[in-house]
Amino acid sequence: MKEYRRVMLMALIIMLAGMAAACGQQEVPASLTVGTAANQSGNAGGSESVIIENSGRTITFEEAPKRAVSLNQHATEIMLALGLEDSMIGTAYLDDQIHPKYQAAYDKVPVLSDQYPSQEVFLGAEPDFAYAGWKSAFSDKALGSTEHLESMGIKSYIQESSNMNGPTMEDVFRDIKNIGSIFRVEERAEKLVADMEAKIEAVHAKVADIETPARVFVYDSGEKEPFTAAQNFMNEMITLAGGSNIFNEINKGWATVTWEEVVNRNPEIIVIVDYGDTTVEQKKEFLQNYAALQDVTAIKEQRFIVLPLSACAEGIRGPETVETLAKHMYPEKFE
């Protein structure tokens, strides 16, 4: 009996010691809130798995992707800004010209398609990861569903800030940090975000004392009825630049409105989005000659801002776009 008790006591001591050691190692949670990343090693750039919550999915990355494909320009430019071109085996779907700062890096990456590649072309590149700006990339007409790709061992990430109403700059930063975690380049992601924050703060400091924000109308397209920015990223950037989007109360990303509504809200600035088959010159000529707009302040004073489509997306160009908008709205603040 004494021997039995002695053995049981020793077993209990060993079990308690093991539990204490295990508790001491649990410094990092297995996962964080939606849209955040957790590295289970507790070390930036560690070799342990990274868990990401993305668009309602929990994704575990046992290692950094080595054969990534980027889809949509703002996703591609985030990858390049993080110095990940050597981890990319393909890219697709530019809106316009790649940012000049990243042209040399972009030239190293094979272009799979002008728009979304077919599933055959995509799979032919033997990717292990797909990163898309828009969820349309994961439709049956494009790459296929994220679930289907996962079944073939291909992880994926959808830019969350591009697929929500009312995205903020903080939402973009979260996406950048998630990509940094997935590829184990957390320090690069933190530096990129810090640089972007500093540029935005420099602009904000110049326009912070504006009492009455300039009224801004974003003209995307449409002659019979205008298609404009509502609660999308353009709204956020206009606000950060010290302006006010005249259709910011509409609870959707882009919206079709009426010219009567535009006239009633009398914008002081018109932002023309440069993309599509209609040129900027054609869009501007239409606006200048449309009879109903002749008494609108922006038309009378010829106050237009032209932005490429890439400048409107939830990516690394945000601070540049904020500065461009602010300089046109309040040139006296930047003299």
Alpha carbon gyration radius: 25 Å
Strand ordering within the main sheet: 6-5-4-7-8
CATH topology of the largest domain: Rossmann fold
Total domain modules = 2
In CATH terms, what is the architecture of the largest domain? 3-Layer(aba) Sandwich
Helical residue percent?
Answer: 25-40%
CATH superfamily of the largest domain: Nitrogenase molybdenum iron protein domain
Write down the secondary-structure element order: HEEEEHEHEHEHEHHEEHEEHEHHEH
Gross geometry: globular
Notable features of this structure?
335 residues; alpha/beta; Rossmann fold; 2 domains; 4-stranded parallel β-sheet; 14 strands; globular; disordered N terminus; Fe3+-hydroxamate ABC transporter substrate-binding protein; ABC_transptr_periplasmic_BD
Brief description of this entry?
By secondary structure, the chain is α/β, with parallel strands linked by helices. It has helices at 2-25, 73-81, 103-106, 119-124, 146-151, 169-182, 186-207, 233-240, 259-265, 280-289, 297-300, 318-329; strands at residues 37-39, 50-54, 57-61, 68-71, 88-92, 111-113, 129-132, 155-158, 214-219, 227-229, 243-245, 254-256, 269-274, 304-308. It has 2 domains: 37-195, Rossmann fold, CATH 3.40.50; 211-334, 3-Layer(aba) Sandwich (Rossmann fold), CATH 3.40.50.1980.
Structure description:
- With 335 residues, the protein is an alpha/beta fold.
- The chain has two domains: 37-195, Nitrogenase molybdenum iron protein domain (Rossmann fold, 3-Layer(aba) Sandwich), CATH 3.40.50; 211-334, Rossmann fold (3-Layer(aba) Sandwich), CATH 3.40.50.
- It contains twelve helices and 14 strands.
- The strands form four sheets. The protein has a five-stranded parallel β-sheet.
- The longest helix is centred in the N-terminal third of the chain and has 24 residues, at 2-25.
- It starts with a helix and ends in a 6-residue tail after the last helix.
- Residues 1-35 and 40-45 have low confidence and may be disordered.
